[in-house]
Design a protein that fits this description.
By secondary structure, the chain is α/β, with parallel strands linked by helices. Helix content is 38%, strand content 20%. Helix 2 packs antiparallel against helix 3, helix 6 packs across helix 15 and helix 11 crosses helix 13. The chain is globular. The two termini are 30 Å apart. The structure holds adenosine-5'-diphosphate. The site of adenosine-5'-diphosphate has 12 residues, from helix 10 and helix 12.
Amino acid sequence: MPDHILTVNAGSSSVKFQVFKAEGEALELDLKAQIDGIGTQAKIRATDANGAIVADRALAQTEAGNVAEALDTTAKWLRERYDVEPAAIGHRVVHGGPKYSRPVFVDANVLADLERFVPLAPLHQPNNLAPIRTILERYPDRPQVACFDTAFHHEHSAVAKHFALPEQFFAEGVRRYGFHGLSYEYIAERLKDVAPDYARARVIVAHLGSGASMCALFEGRSVESTMGFTALDGLPMGTRPGQIDPGVVLYLFAQKRMDVDAVQRFLYNECGLRGLSGISNDVRELERSSEPAAAFALEYFVYRVALYAGTLAAALGGVDAFVFTAGIGENSASIRAKVAKKLAWLGAALDSAANAKHATTISRSDSRVALYVIPTDEELMIARHTLALLAGRKVPS
Ligand code: ADP
């Protein structure tokens, strides 16, 4: 019988699961499930490998009152309906801190380490660790692997990693880490198939989802990222402002008399496309809207993507290829077209027909920068790492 790998991507009120069948080194998606509304009006929605819906129902309070119950419900469902007992569980963990540059098996000691990084990602890290803790308590022998969003950026140069702060801050972990590393690692791998000529060249990847960042790849490795110490930095996002003068944060404290929690809520939930448009954090809705504020928010987003393309091109000393990925990057032909237009100075020329069709290659043959749309798959990357550790193979950092 093949082994199964379960991946877990846990947020505050939702948990995403995927089940992969492992035959040797090959991984095949079996099931995707998402439980939303944990602790309130929980519901599960699951699809099989062909996208057919296999579960879509409300859950009782006792089935998903918290993350631990949601995990139990899922484990029971997998066991009873699919006869699946995962050989190992891979988790998305936002922060590996200064220490973890690759995925690791988690035991109580590693978990204690990862808890020390909670102050570095106070909104995400506790949610990521909650299922690991629950599974360690209930199934202590089940191998669990933590895969970090920061790890792929671990080899950034010292200048890329530093803020201009007294050195003691760097030592205590106040650094530019970079996030979305599992996505960038997946894209770097995919480029070897999709565009082998560019896989080792100077590539900018724009992960444009509800969280958004960009990464500079050289020879398949990350050399720079638009995100820094937290997932607040860089590009404007659905509800986060992206790069902002720290003086604005001082203003919130001093003039608006906001406390730490209020500032945190504001910066994570009330800014970005939502704050700017006053309409929505969702690009689909903004594209449908005829309100000038919606158009302005999208224009701002495109402008910042283009600005950071310049920054990352400087880090790379030029750019050979540009990849769009994640929800907006994969689906919005209009955002891609506007970004591509702003990259004309770098030599980018869009093939509008290919872009409208969401083709993989969307640049014209005379474009000096190759433009690609490559769907990301962070879960598959987690499953690959988990399987590799399970098989005792060395995982490249
Ligand atoms: P995350 O994984 O960070 O939640 P995704 O990568 O799934 O985010 O991206 C979600 C975002 O992608 C949505 O908020 C929406 O703005 C955008 N999106 C999804 N589909 C489309 C589409 N067809 N057109 C434009 N934007 C889209």
